[in-house]
Amino acid sequence: MLPSFADVDPEAVKILPKVLPVPLYAPNGRPVLVHLYPLYAADPPPDGVLEDADMEDEDDYYDWYTYANASKRLAYDPASLAALQIMSLSLVSASKAGLIPNKWGGVLGQELCLD
Predict the structure, then answer these.
(1) In terms of Cα–Cα distance, which of 41, 43, 45, 46 is closest to 15?
(2) Which is the most buried residue in 2, 15, 81, 91, by most CB within 10 A?
(3) Rounded Cα distance, 65 and 44, in Å
């Protein structure tokens, strides 16, 4: 599962059972369907301003991203970007309903607005 793939301690993430998985259709143009399951970090982000930690670490599969930088990182793949947007809106909605915590600066995608 994720801990073995991403070299993450199983205690470092929590499953969010009240948030549904998000479908990712044809990532990178490949004819596949991937279900993205949201996880919650058990520990806070690195010390300091989050934007300072908001970069990819080539030696680590598990990185902290703000929504703005995650969306820039996925801009090359419209399908992955769409899944990020759907997941972000889902997390924001779940947070507003009190189903997931809102701490450490907020929830991924909290800056998104729908008209």
Answers:
(1) 41
(2) 91
(3) 13
Question: Angle at CA 70, nearest 5°, toward 14 and 91?
Answer: 45
- Closest C-alpha to 19, from 39, 33, 4, 41: 39
Please check whether residue 50 is in contact with residue 95, taking contact to mean a CB–CB distance below 8 angstroms: no
Decide: 112 and 96 in contact? Cβ < 8 Å.
Answer: no
32 to each of 29, 87, 91, how far by Cα in Å? Answer: 9, 18, 24
Under 8 Å between Cβ of 91 and 100:
yes
More confident residue, 22 or 51: 22
What is the pLDDT at residue 102? Answer: 84
Residue 87, pLDDT above cutoff 60 = yes
